[in-house]
Each structure stands twice: as structure tokens, then as C-alpha cells.
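The data are quoted verbatim for reference:
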Amino acid sequence: MSASPTLFQRLFPTTLLDRYVLKQLALGLTGITTGAIALIWLMQSLRFVSLVVDRGLSLRVFLELTGLMIPSFLAVILPITTFLVILFGYQRMTSDRETTVMQAAGLSASQMARPGVICATIATVLCYLLNLWIVPTSYHSFKKYQFEIRNRLAAYLIQEGVFTPLSKDMTVYVRSKDRNGQLRGIFVEDDRLPQSHATILAEYGSMIVVDDVPHVVLYNGSRQEIDKHNGRLDVLTFKRNLIDLTSKNHPARQPRDAGEMSISELLNPENASVSPRDRGKFAVEAWKRLTSP
């Protein structure tokens, strides 16, 4: 009793010889593509090593962040590796006289090319899936995760006895941390406002999240600023003060790039969620500008 054909066999009717050639092409394609992606991932991930060294991120977070870039690498490298594998695969069969045996067995040129066509068709379908669905989704997750690490999660990476630069214009020092998360001996150098560089000292404080933005509540402290007009030191003491730990140069929510959007979103973009530099790339927006009086 013969087994029923699989979905692949129904879509691509193959002979034993076809399956042999497809197996060789699939093994070569998997090996070369995996090696190329690993090399590209290693080169690109070096840009994020500073997040691990400077911000103290764990290896798990680093791998999760850089792993979201793999689908975009695969979408670029898969057509190239498919072409090379098919080219060198048939070249190897020619040098090993396998194609000569196939011709002697009565196979035509189209029959010998069928495994390569099937392999290229499968790679084409995968590329369509990657570019139309998987890559936009993974790239959006990557941008969102990266934004959270650089502008939010870094606030929770403050270490005891270390001057932690949360951004290029804010540095925080904490003498100690309690088990319940309370901070003691807090020093903050706040240079986010060019006309007002402030030094903030507090006995203790705690971190809270307000509207998805990290803040620190300071108790029993002082805020010191130098007046640029007369050079005097202004000192403001407080019992309780609330400051946010994000950079003023970064918005609470970033607009989405064109590479993060699906086909439906590209055809019907929302101006509120689209980056201003990308609005001119949409055909709908360009048509509106051309037809508007």
C-alpha cells in the first residue's frame, strides 16, 4: 500500500532523481545561507556592544535585540545564495559527469533543470513572505525594543557607586540601593537645558513610571544652578521633587519608518504615525499633493 503524496509532492511532482538533486541544493543553500547570516549578524551586532558595555545590558537582552535583525538579513542574502548554490550545484554535477548520466538516461534539459527551478521558486516564495510580512514586523519590534533600551530601560540599570550616563546630557550617581528599590545618596547632573545646567542632590528617592516614562522621586535635597547673568549660585531646597530620566531631545514615542509598515499601512498611511522624512515616499501622499489646488 503506497503512502499518500504530501502537499509538497502535489505542488511539485518530482521523481527520485529530482529529490536527490533537491536534497543537495537544499543542504548547500542551508549551509551557505546560515554562514552568511552569521557573518553579517556578527558584523552588525558590533554596533550594539556599547549598550552591553556602557549600559550593563545582559547577554539575553543583547541576543534578543540583535536577533530581530536576522529576518532582514535573510531577505537580502537569500536570493544571492540561491543563485550561487544552484549555479555551483549544477557545475559540480557537470564536473562529476552526473549530468552526462542524466542525458544518457533520456532526461531532457528541462527535466534536469526542474530541481533548480523548484528550489528557486521556494526561495522566491520565502522572499515574498519575508519582505511583505516578517521583515516589517521584526523591524518594528527591533526599533521599539531599541528605543525602550536607550530611553527607558537604561534608567533601571543604575548601579551602586557608579556614575551612570543615561544620555549625553544626564549623569546619575547612587551611593546605595535597598532591596525594595529605594535609592540613597543621589547625585544628578542635568544638562538637558542648554541655558540651565543643574546639579541635584537628594538623601533618598525611588523610581516610578508615569505615562510609560521613568521618573525618580527625590526627597530632602537641593537643586543648584549658576545664574549666567551674574554668576551667582542659586540653591533651591526641596522636601520632594519629581524629575524624568529621559532625554529632552527624544520624544516619548517615535514615528514609524516606512520599513516598519505592512502593505495595507503603506497604501493608507497615517500622518500621525509616519516620520516626516518618509511622507514624501508614499504614492498616496504624492498624489494628494499633485491634485490639491
